[in-house]
Design a protein that fits this description.
Elements lengths: L2 H7 L1 H12 L9 H13 L6 E2 L5 E5 L8 E7 L13 E3 L2 E3 L3 H21 L1 E3 L3 E6 L9 H9 L4 E7 L5 E6 L1 E10 L3 E2 L9 H12 L11 E10 L5 E2 L2 E10 L2 H19 L5 E10 L7 H19 L4 E5 L4 H5 L4 E4 L4 E2 L7 E3 L3 H13 L2 E4 L1
Parallel strand pairs: 3-7, 3-8, 8-17, 9-16
Antiparallel strand pairs: 1-2, 2-7, 4-5, 5-19, 6-20, 9-17, 10-14, 10-15, 11-13, 12-14, 18-19
Helix pairs in contact: 1-10, 2-4, 4-10, 6-7, 8-10
């Protein structure tokens, strides 16, 4: 049975698996229920070696015929951006599967599971050891915890890493790093009339944000950006605010860009910590590395291979560029890595997210071929 025949004959099973797994909530750091489901699924396929590690990754290692060869890793993340802890409603209508998190990244997780089902049925042994990881904490403040733990476990042995994420019309071959901070500003506050003139934490925060937005990134290397994404604080309309929280991040596709932004931000923070009428505390809550020194030839070969596989199976030529994904970790360490997905859809990171059912079979074939091309020596 070839890949396309398998994908066609197991299509309804694949679709049902997507719906079933999407319904299981999995906020970053709380992927336990999905991890348990996935691990049990793999055990039923005959992969008794599959286990859940301390980072809540589900790991299934298949040893290769050449134990000295570099390890190849294929992964997709189990967490979603949504905080839900109760069952996620899944709707199938209008040619789509609709649900928060259905595409990013549940469909990609299911594509790996279906590929493992195929490998189990075919009893194929790879040339090199292959690691399949359904990993935790890719999103937001998950801070790539799952991928960090995975790469650490296989340090010095990884030949390449492929992360399945989002759709097959685009992908990532260049890492955009980021640093994220929670900044707290506290003042004595008071009554808006009786204590008029007392320092207002919101006013201090506004001045600080203004200073952040005066930073000029045009002279910095690559593309460097910054953003204040959340402001919380105050008590009431007639209260001089005592406490404000700001979430601030900056990003760059160059390591130097991150370092220059660190200097700019530190200078601004120092300006406010010197004030006697306000207390400023800052905590780093996210740190994603940027692009490291990766062999250009190996990266070009990996990208060309992925482009060919996607185009052959789907008729779509993907656009590869920069982004922030699980690949940040290996790319920062000089390990060839690439990220692309297995469907067409939209609404990622919204509750209106959907995947197109007519894209699932061909996308699954692309995911399977990317993996199975490394396989040999059928028993």
């Amino acid at each position: 049975m070839d890949i396309k025949t398998f994908a066609k004959e197991h299509f309804e099973e694949y679709k049902a698996l997507i719906c079933q797994l999407t319904a299981i909530p999995a906020p970053s750091h709380h992927e336990e229920r999905r991890a348990a489901f996935i691990c049990e699924y793999l055990h039923q396929l005959g992969y008794g070696q599959a286990f859940i590690d301390d980072a809540k990754n589900v790991i299934c290692e298949i040893k290769g015929s050449d134990l000295e060869a570099p390890v190849h890793i294929f992964m997709a993340h189990t967490d979603t951006v949504f905080p839900d802890e109760t069952e996620i409603p899944v709707v199938v209508e209008d040619g789509c599967i609709k649900a928060p998190g259905v595409g990013d990244d549940t469909t990609n997780v299911c594509a790996i599971l279906m590929t493992l089902k195929y490998l189990s049925e075919k009893q194929i042994v790879p040339k090199q050891t292959m690691v399949f990881a359904l990993n935790s904490c890719e999103e937001g403040l998950g801070n790539l915890k799952g991928c960090r733990a995975l790469v650490k476990q296989y340090t010095g042995r990884i030949g390449q890493l492929v992360s399945y994420d989002c759709g097959y019309n685009a992908g990532t071959v260049w890492a955009v790093g980021s640093r994220r901070y929670e900044i707290r500003i506290r003042t004595t506050g008071g009554h808006s009339y009786a204590d008029f003139g007392a320092t207002n934490a919101i006013a201090v925060a506004a001045d600080m944000i203004h200073d952040f937005y005066e930073i000029d990134t045009n002279t910095m290397p690559g593309k460097t950006t910054y953003n204040v994404g959340l402001i919380e604080g105050g008590t009431s309309v007639n209260t001089i605010a005592q406490d404000v929280k700001i979430l601030y991040e900056y990003r760059s596709d160059r390591m130097m860009g991150l370092e220059l932004m660190e200097r700019e931000m530190s200078a601004i923070i120092d300006k406010y910590t010197d004030r006697e009428d306000a207390r400023v505390d800052i905590e780093m809550i996210g740190d994603r590395p940027s692009m490291g020194q990766v062999d250009k030839k190996k990266m070009a070969e990996l990208q060309k291979r992925a482009e060919g596989i996607i185009f052959r199976n789907t008729g779509v030529m993907p656009m590869f560029g920069s982004g922030s994904t699980d690949c940040n970790i290996p790319l920062s360490m000089g390990i060839p890595a690439i990220c692309f997905g297995v469907y067409l859809g939209g609404g990622q990171h919204t509750r209106e997210e959907y995947v197109r059912i007519d894209s699932l079979e061909t996308g699954l074939c692309a995911a399977m071929e990317m993996i199975c091309e490394d396989m040999t020596n059928p028993l």
